[in-house]
Amino acid sequence: MESNGISRRTALAMGGSLAMAAGTGLKALAAAESGKLIDVHHHYFPPAWMATFKNEIIESHGERFFSWTVQTALDEMDKTGCATAIVTCGGPGTWNGNVEVSRSASRDVNEFGARMVRDHPGRFGFFASVPLPDTEGSLKEIAYSMDTLKADGILLWSNYETRYLGDPGFAPVLEELNRRKAVVYVHPKLTSNMNDADDPLRALGINWENTTRTISSMVNSGVLMRLPNVKFIFSHGGGLLPTVAARLAGKSPEKLKALQGLYMDTAQTTTNPGAWGALTGFAEPSHVLFGSDFPYVVDGLKLGLTSVKLSPSQAAAIGHGYAEKLIPRLSA
């Protein structure tokens, strides 16, 4: 299969042989096509949401972002040649167990994101937040954010307390997203509800295992195979998926096909040869999208631009070409 000039065979070769080389790689995109980079993993922190969710944000180790502003995001984007950031609400999202508070927070966050898009044409897009596990509130917010605010997609978290996205209670929301053929961005979430407070990975802020757990739950419940129209993007290179996909699929070609149909971003993979090799060896080439994880990762945009060795055409495809195919308005 050919995808924007990169064949499946080429992608497999990339996975086995791409060398890490500072000063090369996606930096070629900045040099050759400055101003075209699209970052699909970029967080924002609306002031009203931060005030309401202050305690939850501190618990998620996000207190350092209380000084965030739209201008600080733009400054970093300008410094690194990033044209457009598709923003998602920072952790812990907009659900805190209180239905009314969570509905109000989702609406505030989404209207703030829409204002960013409107006030800075071409610089931002946003994946809207919904108050899952509140089904009624989530369906209403999907309709409002996508039909009125023109969100580029929907943000879901890997888990809500101990419930993963394969939970049958989430099916009505996922089925509506499938009906809409929506782009759905999934970000992992730390949780203290799983007796993981002393987990050394939690202390390091590494929560990719919850990405893998939620994908596993979606495969095991069959929900992933029942949602062929949803374009799922899983952050951080799909967590551990590229290394465990064959075991998750078992002997089912249908499951493997569904797993290979997922999109994944490059955040926190380009500085790790093992993660990068696994990602590029497993993923459909056109399903690898640039992501920085700004501002959680210091210099995430800069590191993503300079850490892997790619040709200019490969860098352009990952840096913006595949995102433009997924979200056509970005190519306008």
Structure description:
The protein is an alpha/beta fold and 332 residues long. It has a single domain (2-331), classed as Alpha-Beta Barrel (TIM Barrel), CATH 3.20.20. Helices cover 46% and strands 15% of the residues. An eight-stranded parallel beta sheet has the order 3-4-5-6-9-10-11-12. Strands 1-2 form a two-stranded antiparallel ribbon. Helix 7 (135-148) runs parallel beside helix 8 (171-179) and helix 12 (241-249) packs antiparallel against helix 13 (253-260). The longest helix has 21 residues, at 99-119. The relative contact order is 0.18.
Low-confidence stretches: 1-24
CATH architecture: Alpha-Beta Barrel
- Spell the H/E element sequence: EEHHEHHHEHEHEEEHEHHEHHHEHEHH
Given helix and strand content, the structural type is alpha/beta
Count of helical stretches? 16
Strand content: 5-15%
What's the helical proportion of residues?
Answer: 40-55%
Could you tell me the CATH topology label.
Answer: TIM Barrel
Morphology call: globular
What's the arrangement of strands in the largest beta sheet?
A: 3-4-5-6-9-10-11-12
Topology:
Blueprint: E1 2-3, E2 6-7, H1 8-17, H2 27-32, E3 37-44, H3 47-52, H4 54-59, H5 70-80, E4 82-89, H6 99-119, E5 124-129, H7 135-148, E6 153-157, E7 159-160, E8 163-164, H8 171-179, E9 183-187, H9 200-203, H10 208-221, E10 231-234, H11 235-238, H12 241-249, H13 253-260, E11 263-265, H14 273-282, E12 288-289, H15 300-306, H16 312-326
Helix pairs in contact: 1-14, 6-7, 7-8, 12-13
